[in-house]
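hi! just following up on the protien thing from before. the input was this:
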Amino acid sequence: MRGFTLIELVVAIAVAGFVLGASITAWPKLHQAMAYRSAVRGVFASMNTARGEALRSGQAAVFFVDLDQRNYGVGDKVLGDFSDALTLRYTLAEREVDARGRGQIRFSPDGGATGGSVEVLRGDGSGVRLRVDWLLGSVTQEAVGG
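and the predicted 3d structure came back as:
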């Protein structure tokens, strides 16, 4: 007859309980890391989307960041939200803050842009700066803080 002994079952349940307990305590940190990565990828992709849209359509396209509503997008379309655990900052020309208080980076059809940067920061102050070059309209990222 084959089977498990009581000791083997108790050990298996104890190991499963330990793994479950460890994963539950790590969940908030994992969730924050996923929200940070998602925000950085989303902002980077949205900036490049606006740039591509301007080049393709022959008309200016606008990327925006709304610090009050904690979202970002292209044109009037919101493409993503920021977690409350993240700190946001932008550096833009004063004229690129619209009546609603949204910061904007305008991409022109000739490949240029108004330029500026958006910082997405974790709770410890580390994060990334997404920078738009005014001459070429290219989007780059660099680490900040930490």
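The beta strands are 61-66, 71-74, 77-81, 87-91, 103-107, 116-121, 127-132, 139-144.
The longest helix spans residues 6-57.
cheers
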